[in-house]
Amino acid sequence: MASVSRTDTSVLGRWWWSVDRVTLLALSMLIGIGYVLALAATPGLTMRITDPHTMAMIKQIIFLGMGGATMLAMSMLSLRQVKLAALGMGIIFFLLTGFTLLHGVEVDGAHRWIALPGFTIQPSEFLRPAFIIISGWLIAESRRTPGFPGKRAALGFFLLTALLLKMQPDIGMTFLFTMVIFTQFYLDGLDMKWVFVAALIVLAALVAAFIFIPHVHTRVMLYWHPTKTSAYQAITALSAFGNGGLLGLGPGEGQVKHFLPDARADFVFAVAGEEFGLLFCAFIILVFGVVVVRAMVRLLAEPNLFVVLAGGGLIVGFGLQAFVNMASSLSLIPTKGMTLPFISYGGSSVLAISIQMGFLLALTRKRHLADYS
């Protein structure tokens, strides 16, 4: 791509010289790390679910390839095309998220997935990037068009979505949506008294979840009072980092993947720590940090409010998801079933985060004033 001339006016040429290539490289690295860890972490679960190791590995590699292609395709969209794509996705996956309550596959008491031939899909994963774009669009439009009830519409959309997620239930996803909408209203200039009120509401919701939702109460209590049997996953994951040391035991040599049921998804960071060591984990954190900081720097110089609100929501959702996964693996916070973007196993997770970051790359491209119309 370095041979593409600055005078090239083709779609590919314009994209190459306007896209944030540092962020693109960092995201490509995460996809590459996901490929490496798909090879390293797969055996622990495949032996439990009796699927052939090679089949699970190939499926994840295919999803990563599809995710990379999807991210590149989304990054080439114009602002108008991003809005239209998000609107279509939002309608479809909002309805499918509601559909899970009636005909969803039940896993551990939650109805979050829809079964299709050969695989399952989690609609709320795909609803998230669409929701972020739509809510940012509505809030920005309320500023641009006096009298347009965009903020109320965005808040209503959030409340309906949160209700569906609560009914599944999916507390982690509800938390992500809440932090995204709060970030967008804050970036829009939310009065500090309302920031305080919102913080109190979130705190009250967390306390209520602890009191009234059994599995939330259990996870918090296990975090504060761990024992060998009750906090088995957290203790096993934490021991993996000690086993790996600075440089790790080597690819395929780790043992934690044989004992953790969620080694490929929720605790893939622990697998990385055991097999590749502390330095590799630090590199993963660094790459995530580059994506987040780079996006924030681009948005600070952005004159378009929609881009700021939508881009801010996308990067907060991405960064927060990565933090929760890695922090729970390190026992810094109670364990939460949240995937590590591009790295954890799962087709829905990989494809949805690819769309999300494709949208971010599209929003943060360099533009002339005429391109904002």
How many helices in DSSP terms? 13
Provide mean pLDDT, rounded. 87
The amount of helix comes to: over 70%
Q: What is the rounded Rg?
A: 21 Å
- Sum up the overall morphology in one term: globular
SS-based class? mainly alpha
Tell me the number of strands: 3
Strand composition percent: under 5%
Task: Give an account of the 3D structure.
There is one protein chain. The protein is mainly α. The protein has one domain (13-89, 123-366). 70% of the residues lie in helices and 3% in strands. A three-stranded antiparallel beta sheet has the order 1-2-3, with helices on one face. A hairpin with a 2-residue loop joins β1 (105-107) and β2 (110-116). The model has no long low-confidence stretch (mean pLDDT 87).
Task: Please render the helix and strand layout as text.
Blueprint: H1 11-18, H2 21-49, H3 53-75, H4 79-103, E1 105-107, E2 110-116, E3 119-121, H5 123-144, H6 150-167, H7 171-187, H8 192-212, H9 214-224, H10 232-244, H11 268-300, H12 305-329, H13 347-363
Antiparallel strand pairs: 1-2, 2-3
Helix pairs in contact: 2-3, 2-11, 3-13, 4-5, 4-6, 5-6, 5-7, 5-12, 5-13, 6-7, 7-8, 7-12, 8-9, 10-11, 11-12, 12-13
Please give a handful of descriptors for the protein shown.
single chain, 373 residues, mainly alpha, three-stranded antiparallel beta sheet
